[in-house]
Amino acid sequence: MNLPWLKGATEQLWQDFLTGRLAHAYIVSGPLGTGKTLFCQHFAKTLLCMDKSELHSPCNSCASCSTFENFSNPDMLNICPTDAGKNINIDQIRAVNEFYSYKPHYGAHKITLIHPATKMNTNSANALLKILEEPPEGALIMLVASSAGHLLPTIRSRCLNLRIPQPNWDTVSTWLSDKLSVSSSSLDNHPTTLFGGPLEILKGINHDNDTTSLFDEMLADLVSLSNGNCNAIEIAKNYDSNGIEGFLDTLEVIVSTTLLAIFQQLPLNLKLCKASSEKIIYLSEKNTEVKLFELSDLIRTSRELLHRSQGVRAQDIIEEIFISFMPRE
Description:
By secondary structure, the chain is α/β, with parallel strands linked by helices. It folds into 2 domains: 4-163, P-loop containing nucleotide triphosphate hydrolases (Rossmann fold, 3-Layer(aba) Sandwich); 182-324, no CATH class. The chain has 15 helices and 5 strands. The protein has helices at 7-18, 36-48, 63-69, 90-99, 122-133, 153-156, 169-180, 184-188, 198-207, 214-227, 232-236, 244-262, 274-286, 289-308, 314-324; strands at residues 25-29, 76-79, 110-114, 139-145, 160-163. The protein has a 5-stranded parallel sheet, sandwiched between helices. Helix 4 (90-99) links the parallel strand 2 and strand 3. The termini are far apart.
């Protein structure tokens, strides 16, 4: 798994294992596209391997590795939404209890991977608490989330948080150059902003070089709103409420990048295209630090509302945020 920015998290987990301090549950958090699920799958495969190397790599040939590859390993349980846009239902979580009612088949561990854990509703999350409170010997539960704060406090308090940070642009650029067989300078001159986790950037480049990124699209709309040239409600209709977490994550980066511009600093974890760089400068001149910090607070409280109140409409949040960017009388 050639994802260099995961080295620190990998070393931490193996150190926990070797010193007998491996927790029964981890929240693996970090930005979209940093490989959180891949990281968990690789660690799980290696931990379950019957002949792993001293360098903590799976042998890929034992019975455990073979069954892991074809998704039939009896010591591994994957839980994710059954359909796009759906939640992880309570019956899926009840299956975790049944899974741990049997002893490990190959070794000493049984592992559950829940991704994304933010798709658990309150009932599902509460059903998971029984295992988290009284984990059987050898149990390991890994919950993938963009932020631990998006999960219920009762879940967070029973897990260790393993944060995978957004790598800086130099690391991303070197990795992308190798994967795409291009020079770093060609990435610096890319026509759209290269934003997000490295895997997400790679997917965007491979999909269509001419596609406007969510970052650039939202930034252009925010500039229009700041000018008073468009209607916030109409603009909000262009954004999919099912992608509200990606919307909030992107907006958060735009706000933080604009704050950096006020202090004449450059972001370290993305590469702005020329047009978006000019728009960021414009927003930094159009908005005060106070307003931008208020927007940061609005993003934070919006996330909390989404995860604590099931009756909140994502579309209402998108509209409220866009309205906040309109000029004040």
